[in-house]
Amino acid sequence: MEQVSYHEPVMARESVELLVRMPGIYVDCTLGGGGHAEAFLNALHHGEFMHSSFFIGIDQDTDALAHAARRLERFGGSYRLVQGNFGDVDAIVREIRSTVAPDLPVAGVFADLGVSSFQIDTPDRGFSYLRPGPLDMRMDPGGDVTAASLVRSLDERELGDVFYRFGEERQSRRIAAAVKRAVASGAAMDTTIELASVVRSVVRGHEHQVKSLSRIFQALRIAVNEEMAVLEQFLEDAPALLAPCGRLGVMSYHSLEDRMVKQKFRSLSEDDWGPRGVGLREPLKAAGYRLVSSKPVVAAQAEVEVNPRARSAKLRVLENKESGGCHG
Predict the structure, then answer these.
(1) How far apart are CA 13 and CA 16, in angstroms?
(2) Which residues have C-beta within 8 Å of that of residue 305, sequence separation ≥ 6?
(3) Which of these, 96, 93, 105, 64, lies nearest to 77 by C-alpha position?
């Protein structure tokens, strides 16, 4: 296998500054290569919460867990890494907390929704149209559904829906029709090269081809890993884990994810005034959460220049304000 590495974590400093504000349990729900986890553990170990905090790292990719374990081993027994899907964060955290740190509050939960460069740059994983490899795209290598099996099993309309819904591809119908024609003609459609060739046969012009290829591969990856459903479940469960003044940070890289995070955070941070708010001087229910900033945090230009993937990142942070009196 080609030797590749994990990317530098995006907005690691900002993530730590916004989330690490009290002692307790901190959770990185998308561990990846451990870059953000390292930043969190550094802050906890060298700060005032060193003896009153515990860290949990979650990832469904066994390669990521192995890499992160090596990166974080110097932090001793102050953390636990577990294979799992971040959509199951509630069950994972509650189980570990009950056995390791039952008296500690959940102070911070973090999720970086970006695909790691390790996964993209590893040809055997099949995430990139730039590299020849099997049309796989599973975040969890043990998963049952691959991009190839999805392409072959969905009918033309269903495949077009995937391309349009998850990739926002304007030529989704034409590309889906071409893919299914190729399959009907005997194409195995089980490699990144085969799929990319079909997309290029439909879309004209190099610049348009690159954009469509990115959208089509993104759409299949999201569908294979059920990313939007997982994110929806995560956004439903993660806020409830937070102790008073605890914070949830989510970093997204494309509009589908960011829109879902924005809408959920907004709904949790707005008072409920009842139907249309007619005739009510006080809300029926005051919001239990607040937005830490009205707009998402974005990377500084200096970081973008050295880490281009930071350009599209948006970090939104939600705070549990039930008890009031939170600082900053």
Answers:
(1) 5
(2) none
(3) 96
